[in-house]
Amino acid sequence: MAIYLLRRLGLAVITLFLLSLIIFFAGQVLPGDPARSILGPLSAESAVRALDHQLGVDRPLVTQYWSWISGMLRGNMGESYQYQSPVEPLLVTALVNSAKLAALALIVIIPLGILGGVVAALYAGRPIDRIITLSGSSAAALPEFATGIVVIVIFSVELKLLPSSAQAQPGASFATQLQSLILPAIPLVLVLFGYIARMARAGTVEALESDYVRTATLKGLKRTVVIYRHVLRNSLLPTITVIATQTGYLFGGLIVVETLFNYKGIGDLIFHAATAKDFPMLEASVLTVGVVYMVATLIADVLTTTLDPRQRTAAFR
Amino acid sequence: MTATETTPAPDAAAGPENAVQVEHLDVSYRVRGRDRLALRNVSFQIARNESYGLVGESGSGKSTVALALTRYLPRNGRVSAGSIRIAGRDPLALNPEKLRQLRAHSVSMVYQEPGKALNPAIRVGRQIAEVYEVAGLGRADALERSEEMLRRVQISDPGRVMERYPHELSGGMAQRAVIAMALASEPELLILDEPTTALDATVEAEVLDLVAGLRNQFDTSLLFISHNLAVIAKMCDRVGVLYAGELIEEGPAQQLFDQPRHPYTMGLLRCIPRQGQRKDHGRLDSIPGFLPAPGQALAGCIFAPRCSIAEDRCRETAPPAFDVGPDRSSRCFLHEATPDLPRSTPVNVELSAPAESAQPVVTIRNLSKTFTSRGQAVHALAGVNLDIERGETLGLVGESGSGKTTLARLLLGLTPPDAGSAIEMDGEPLGGDLRKRGRTQLKALQIVFQNPDSALNRRHTVRQLISRPLVKLAGLSGPALQERLADLVRSVRMEARHLPLRPRQLSGGLKQRVAIARAFGGGPRIVVCDEPTSALDVSVQAAILNLLADLQAKEQVTYLFISHDLQLVRYLSDRIAVLYLGRLMELGPAERVFSGPHHPYTEALLSAVPSLDGQRPQRIRLTGEIPSAASPPSGCVFHTRCPRRLASGICESTEPPLAEVEPGHLMSCHIPIDQLTTLQSYEPMP
Amino acid sequence: MATPPGTPGIVASDTQRRELPVWRLLLRRPTFVTGALILLFWVVCAIFGTSIAPHSPLAQQLLATNQAPSAAHWFGTDQLGRDMLSRVIVGARTMLIIAPLATVVGTVLGTALGLALGYLGGVVDLLASRVIEAVLALPALLVIFLFMVPLGVTTLSQVLVIGFIFTPLIARTVRSAVQVERQLDYVPAARLLGERSGWMMFVEILPNVVPTILVEFTVRLGYAVFAVASLAFLGFGVQLSTPNWGTDINANYAVLGAGYWWGSLFPALAIASLIIGINLVADSVEQVVVG
Q1: Shared domain check, B75 and B103
Q2: Which of B8, B140, B398, C94 has the fewest Cβ atoms nearer than 10 Å?
Q3: How far B268 CA sits from the closest chain C CA (Å)?
Q4: Buried b vs exposed e over B582-607: b needs ≥16 C-beta within 10 Å?
Q5: B:95-124 residues touching chain A, CB 8 A cutoff
Q6: Which of B38, B89, B83, B41 is nearest to B64 (CA)?
Q7: What integer best gives the mean pLDDT of chain B?
Q8: Is residue B89 within 8 angstroms of chain A, CB to CB?
Q9: CB neighbours (10 Å) of residue A119?
Q10: Helix, strand, coil share (%) of chain C residues, nearest 5
């Protein structure tokens, strides 16, 4: 068990290290001079040089990477060019905001997606299956801003039920916050539904066609027992991984949703940091998105390994 | 028997009722909007306590019978006519609750792959206990009864097995657990669908013995479904032969196999080497033609297109079931002419005699292969010494994990051997890696794989598949290439019209012919045949074996013939090598190895094989599992299962050398040859 | 079963009739036909857009800005008084140039990479797979966005960036398909004929993974449309004289609150319908060639 965990963690650390390298060097190699973008195109060459030196961007790349990554590990994320203030508090606030939105979407979608997939599988080939499958896969492919605009037009502009801006006033009550998050959560829910339902359906169909479900049925077990005890236990395992992967990808969708709904989350932060060439902020927040993904998949891996006896023996031997 | 108390008693007024009564059953599958008949007009009954066998090749519909009986047809399948009664009830007419009751108490089923029949996420004990819980027992009682049941299927440590997950059990052990589960409800009918096909020979023998024993204890009728005629003959009282969805012949097992009254049954039996038949005694017969496509509309007898004695009426009118003796029937107008059915293949054979006393083509010295699996060293092959003589057929026999396929891959250069191993061809060392071998060496060694679906690139046409070795290895091009191609196609009995087709458009037998043509294209000197017929039906198998024999005579090649089927190996081989856990146990002329004295392991393998020709007098059974090659037993690797292990303890401590016990016959056993001869000549069954 | 007398009985055959070609099987599926029709509609708009459109998509009518949908302007007009219907029709062109090109780039590179990694294996595969995993830890859209910012938006930069980001995604799929193929016996059989790696990869294995690649291509094409539209929405649309759906939404969504919904909604629906069309096709292709 311990060895398995260590190995899995080690793998995650290696991937994270590679990711940090990619992020850092991509930030360096890409054209764009931070000092120039801070000072504006008309400022004097000497001033730009001076600021470059002050920011430390004229040092060798390896040195820069080392001071960046060691700072990260100590929890020192550097200073934002844009806001002239430490990255950390800004990032944490944004992350918390995004987490609220993501949590709302996930709470709705996990049971809904699984239910949809299982129902589709139980009625595989029938109209209800085609409806769930096709609408799910179409919804998953729609850009969040397209669905976002549709829901804004319907619920905010026409029906005037919900606010089109997600950002509640500071200190707003939980209910108000929740209310303002409903609309932005819808596009996310639509995207995730397709992926989760598809996986749940595939796993359930496979289990339903298996010999062991035939054995269980021919034992004379009740249909509900067969499904609950024999089908779902096996069919939902792969779904865990998909949920984790999608949790990571959720943050990709946030950049669009947060822009559309004017919400101060990590997507919004990345968007502004990128357009302002605020590299410390950008690198820190992108790395954070990577860490969220890695942690989510790590949890999913450990969870499936523990739940599946076959993987358990292989891993914990 | 508290478990069956809830079973409603069959209607007593109906008198002695059959366990199963199937009448005029038609089952069809809807494929691409059209109904295709998988079973037509099938009628049979199974009396209480009777063991009934259904035998047929793939596509005969034998599994469909099992699915229909349990009402577990896939969604596109339905019973379109006829009736079924199990223990007096009609599963097709029952409401879901009654159907569940019927399944819970009256029918159970065991199928081919025990590993898949058990839920991978639930402990074995729980899965068996479910059966008792359905019958109304509490959980603790159910678990107790389950343990008892496992003991009855001869699992020595049921407590531990209960706690295991299915993947932690070997195939034989898992199949016992499945059988325990099936019998736990004490059903009136137990359906076994190819229950031992996925198991090794020695394990199969154990499981068959177990089923035969339990059947008497449990008062259960059996429906035993198999493609293997010998297994059916061993296990069943009466037999029905299915062909293309029709029951073409039925009768008591021994009678039916001794005197078949349908040309198909007759042909099938002639396809199998029997009673020590060998290739120099004459060739196997084969059944020409192919199974009709499923659902094909037909007039007359379904077998007529392949039947050598078919007359006009056979092609026009479907024959009824003729009464051909007590309790026997045959759907053939010409059932009286069947015993004189002419052969489809001439008997005489041209044979290449292995060149005498010449230098061996291949010498293998100290050949070892160690794989690493999860940090553990697995010795797939350990120090094998072997010569392959020019022009001979060397049979390689062993159960799964014995290293036979590894040996072939090392010889071919597909896998490099461990350091210190040496393979020489004509005195020249053969490189361990294919890339280090020159064109002559590449040309010399080819293989025919077991499964042509895997061995043929499914995107290439037959023409591409067969021409490639002619181009690459024989270096042909232009008209010479075309000429040789036509020649090769003819020599594997194929036609030019097959050339533009892709593998999926060919039948299994044709695919294997393409693979054989490819192997022979470069003019090889040694062809490895790795279970070349085990993926094929019996009627096709014989034709492939004959083809291999013909080609050997024509091309003077040497065969390394790998098979788990001892009768086949005996039929085809000049010499036989027996492998166990990567070690050579015995090597000698085929007849000597079969007639004995033989190595105790060979003896066990031979006794494990069910035979159509009645039981052998002496039978030894192996118990226990095949040990893992990762941790082979000390001393003689076979000692853990050897029934003839010496009391002195030498078998446990010292590995016996491979020694010559008589001219050309080598054995790796501590027991002196004289003692083996005595032991094996008149030993009563233990 | 009662066949009239005189008809020949069954002819047992050793070969099966040729199966229907893939396109015939596709045409039998209503989902495919629907998707293909939607696609066809947008392709026609992309090619002949300017001749179909009722107005010039660029003509500004400053006296008729933010007009709600009417008989004259079915989709209304935007803040500059341009006809939205015409802009939506002509806007198909930008999308249908960039998205397919980017997908082709990604598919070609990804297939080559996946074939090499899957067939050759070894240390390179191990390393490359880790790097691919690392890249995939970030959402593709985010990475594409991060590259677009410094590179600047041109048709070429969009095609290349989206194509490059698709490469590891497609490579991963192709690689695992190749690894499945490698388990089959036709691979050692070909090696025994002395075939070299190039032949093994491109002649033996590639044809067998084409179905996987085809499915991957259609799925990625949908995602490319998604990415191009999302970028344009974020303000990174190609600044051509032709209109662009995402850019239009970006320009108009700020006035949603004022009730001017048509400027955003119709381009959004256009994007949605194109993606759904591609998805219906992708779904059918997957069912036919793989399932």
Answers
A1: yes
A2: B140
A3: 17
A4: bbbbbbbbbebbbebbbbbbbbbbbb
A5: 96, 100-105, 107-109, 111, 113, 116-122
A6: B38
A7: 87
A8: no
A9: 16
A10: 70, 0, 30
The residue from B340, B366, B383 where one domain ends is B340
Q: What is the mean pLDDT of chain C?
A: 84
Residues of A in contact with B116 (CB under 8 A): 210-212
Same domain, residue pair B186 and B326: no
Instruction: Indicate whether B563 belongs to any domain.
Output: no
Closest residue of C to B473, CA-based? C193
The torsion defined by the Cα of A13, A18, A20 and A25, in degrees rounded to 10, comes to: 170
Together in a domain, B160 and B116: yes
Last residue of a domain, one of B319, B340, B361: B340
CB C158 within 8 A of CB C238: yes
- DSSP E strands, B227-375: 238-243, 246-252, 322-323, 329-330, 362-373
Domain range for B152 is 18-243
In the predicted structure, residue B9 carries a pLDDT above the cut 50: no
Domains and CATH numbers, chain C: 73-289 (1.10.3720.10)
End-to-end CA distance of chain C: 32
**Which pLDDT tens digits describe chain A residue by residue (317 residues)?**
678 888 888 888 888 888 888 888 777 665 556 666 666 667 777 777 777 777 676 777 788 888 888 888 887 877 887 788 888 888 899 999 898 899 999 999 999 999 999 999 999 888 899 889 888 887 887 888 888 888 888 888 778 777 777 776 777 777 888 888 888 889 889 888 988 998 899 999 999 999 999 999 999 999 999 999 999 988 888 888 888 888 877 877 788 888 888 888 898 898 888 888 788 888 888 888 888 888 888 888 888 888 888 887 776 65
Q: Give domain status of residue B461, yes or no.
A: no
List chain A residues with CB under 8 Å of B109: 214-215, 218
Facing A141 at nearest CB: one of C147, C222, C249:
C222
For residues B172 and B268, membership in a common domain is answered with: no
Q: What is the pLDDT of residue B472?
A: 92
For B451, the closest chain C residue by CA position comes to: C185
Domain count, chain B: 2
Let me know if residue B456 belongs to a domain: no
Rounded distance between C-alpha atoms, residue B314 and residue B322, angstroms: 14
- B107/A217 touch (CB, cutoff 8 Å), yes or no: no
DSSP state of B8: P
Residue C13 has pLDDT above 70, yes or no: no
Is B101 close to A221, i.e. CB distance below 8 A? no
Instruction: Give the nearest chain B residue to C207 (CA atoms).
Output: B459
Is B475 within 8 Å of B469 (Cβ atoms)? no
Phi, psi (deg, nearest 5) at residue B562: -100, 130
> What pLDDT digit, counting tens, does each position of C199-245 carry?
999 999 999 999 899 989 988 998 899 889 888 888 887 766 678 88
Size of interface A-C (CB pairs under 8 A): 145
Q: Tell me, what CATH number does B139's domain have?
A: 3.40.50.300
In chain B, what residues touch C191 (CB-CB under 8 Å)? 414, 434
Q: Which of C134, C226, C235 sits opposite A22 (nearest CB)?
A: C134
User: Measured between beta carbons, which residues in chain C are less than 8 angstroms from residue A147?
Assistant: 272
Q: Which amino acid is at A254?
A: L
Q: Extract the tokens encoding B529.
A: 């045949």
B453 located within any domain: no
Q: B329 and B238: one domain?
A: no
B218 and B73 inside one domain: yes
Report the residue from B409, B455, B510 with minimal CB separation from C186.
B455
- Considering the domain architecture, whether residues B187 and B310 belong to the same structural domain is answered as no
C13 interaction partners in chain B (CB closer than 8 Å)? 290, 293
ipTM of the complex: 0.85
What chains are in contact with C, requiring at least 3 Cβ pairs below 8 Å? Answer: A, B
Q: Which of C38, C22, C284 has the alpha carbon at shortest distance from A130?
A: C284
